[in-house]
């Protein structure tokens, strides 16, 4: 038995190329799985620990102001176990040599805070330590900043930081960093959507200091922890009613809280990528192992029969081959786990650069490695088993006689075709028609990398087209200046008159609003745009056309419409907390598809008719004269009325940076899938060629020239290539939809459209691989000694 | 008898060496012979005597380490693979021990394949009729018995109307009755078309149908027997 195993392994070594290819492909799948799983475990573990330790609430609300005593009385409501809050406000932060408007979301800290507790990491110059919940605040003038901003500005303990509140400057000393369970993802105002520590982050000061600065002790950001067994829906209406008198601005459950929702979306994306991508690669390796082992059993058929005649059992024989599956699985898992570590770390670092994570250290969970080994071994052993199960059907007597000839399809060429094509073309065509399964395997080997690469190649252009449409075509302005109060559109526009070098300007209204329809409700951002706006056009990315905002109602985003279950022509209840008391009945006059966000739009002129309020605006969109961008930005920076500036180019750069990192990751997958494609196409073609060695050598002996043989194999390869590409087209659709669903979040959706140039690249790539495979086939055919094959049984 | 005729093929001092790792094996140690028109030659010899190597060299599918093969007044150039291919294509017909029919072609198509390569091919349908397998024209090799496959293989070899027919153990995988049928076809070709045929075999009984018998041993042509009264294939049995 031991000797037979040795023999099986030695024979397997002859197929080392295919077997190592399988190991490589398994390793890719395992690497993806382990790196995604480990990144997810690292992120989820520490974030959920923070949620638990720092008492993340189940319900979030923002109000204009509520006293602590009044808030405490909410615990009397059925279903509310705990209530708490902070004083919070966006304020400007000033440091020396500052070129941007830097804003912090400033929050109060008290050792008596009950929910959504800040996690302060004190930096005393000698080291850092996390203060446990309920700790005293370190010093009256201390300020703790989000790690992202601290990293960019490189503050040292004691560095002076000034905050400007209501035109008055307040001095603080940098004391360390802060993590908030509800601000892991600190989204800046102005719809930038991506955290940017250079202009926006969170900050915490003592409650006393905050009260003095704000001249109020009323809480503005509040949260509720629900009793066990209660859902948000059970308390929602009561909370809405009870919070209205305190100027309710927003109310949502945890699942819709910006940071929580974003993180859950990321977890989901990582989880699906960590499942789908490994599945794709594992499927290739299963396919390849199956083919390799199946052919190996064909080759070893008489040996197996002989061994059975000697008395070896099926189990013993299969065990010897299954060992190969085991070894391949172990090697694949080992290589995958080794590569997963740096890949996982770089992904984690990518997350670190955008999120305020409580723990910057990347851990290597053991469980993912165990799982990797289990999956890799199970997959390869199963594939090997499928390939060798033919052993069971081989009887000892079969070893003594020639293998029963292969049964071919008996499709015939039409007579007219047979007469008009070259003989070797006819040979190739008949070879294809009479062994369709062989052709199917090769076509599949070509179709998969084509489908995968054509989708992965399209990722970069997709991001680019989103950037172009979002930031070049739709948002034609250079700067978006947030003003300190709402004014009439005319007055807002007048403020641009005082600025030099402004080419054009437009006023815009922006405010968080709430929409509801029957039992469904959701928050949205209302953008009020001037009629025929040139600086902000609304694009429907499904129809790829600019949309005119209707005059008789709201134009709402498709995601929002889906959540509310409304369509064009329906009516919804509409509320603008802080501006409109109660609910307005508003018509949905249009639904559009957008990549980002879930906004709704209304013409500024239509505010009185649709909402019953005067037209107003709080944002000034500016297009600067060419070459004067920095001057205009400086003017805005020095203006007393501007609280926040969105530099469109900078936002675009931030987006591009984030997507560039993701594009690099996608490119890595593309390269890996191309390598997998090379391995697959090469091995499957070679395996099939080896099957036909006698046939091809016979042709050579009969006098077929290399050119004629080359033409026949070329013709066959081109037919398989064409079939593979055709099979890859639905594959492309399937993978696109798979990726689309993986990347879909509540904040954005990328419609992965069919990208012809990407398909052309993938087509050329697979074409080159096929040509190389053909070239290697020819080399193999030429290298076979004519005499070797002649003594073999067909 | 042979002295007055002009040989169609001449082998001069053919040597063949193989390297097996450190060891050099001398398969042929300087073999000389001529082949004339219309004659049927049987090469006899034990395994490893060099008979298959000789046949392969004659057919241009293997090259000699030393020596010359002259065919039709031209010496074969071992280094010119294209010329060797054309030599096989235009002048040589092969019959293999295990038939080597192309599995994706029907019986008739297998024969036609060779016809496509020859200069003055014999009609494939005529040949399949001659080998008695007309009714099996559309059958694939996997549907034919060993004897039928070998008859198709012979028809394929003859279809291109070769100048020299080389047969490597053509009856090796067949029973005696079928073997005789196959030998008859080869013999008839030789006689009817007046083309030379070389058959290699272990079977001494087959030598009875030959005009000349070459005895190979240890890589040398030990002796040549001339058979003044070759037997008809139908009269031999083994």
Give an overview in words:
The complex is a heterodimer of chains A (794) and B (238). Chain A has 794 residues and is of the alpha+beta class. Chain A folds into four domains: 1-57 and 262-404, no CATH class; 58-261, no CATH class; 415-474 and 648-794, no CATH class; 502-624, Cathepsin D, subunit A, domain 1. In chain A, 52% of the residues lie in helices and 20% in strands. In chain A, strands 3-4-10-7-9-8 form a six-stranded mixed barrel. In chain A, helix 2 (16-53) packs across helix 9 (314-354), helix 13 packs antiparallel against helix 19 and helix 14 packs antiparallel against helix 19 (648-691). Chain A is elongated and about 100 Å long. The model of chain A has no long low-confidence stretch (mean pLDDT 86). Chain B has 238 residues and is α/β, with parallel strands linked by helices. Helices cover 29% and strands 27% of the residues of chain B. Chain B has six helices and ten strands. In chain B, helix 3 packs parallel to helix 5 (146-159) and helix 4 packs antiparallel against helix 5 (146-159). The mean pLDDT of chain B is 89. The interface between A and B is medium-sized, with 31 and 35 residues.
Q: What CATH architecture label of chain B applies?
A: 3-Layer(aba) Sandwich
CATH superfamily of chain B: P-loop containing nucleotide triphosphate hydrolases
Strand content of chain B: 25-35%
Low-pLDDT stretches of chain B are none
Helix content of chain B: 25-40%
Binned strand content of chain A: 15-25%
The chain-level mean pLDDT of chain A equals 86
Query: Which H/E pattern describes the elements of chain B?
Result: EEEHEEHEHHHEHEEE
Describe the strand arrangement of the main beta sheet of chain B, using strand numbers: 6-7-8-3-9-10
What structural class do you assign from the helix and strand content of chain A?
alpha+beta
| Helix residue percentage of chain A | 40-55%
- CA-to-CA gap between the ends of chain B? 30 Å
> pLDDT under 50 segments of chain A (min length 5)?
none
Provide the CATH topology of chain B.
Rossmann fold
Shape of chain A: elongated
Q: What's the gyration radius of chain A in Å?
A: 33 Å
Strand order of the biggest β-sheet of chain A: 3-4-10-7-9-8
- Write down the Rg of chain B: 17 Å
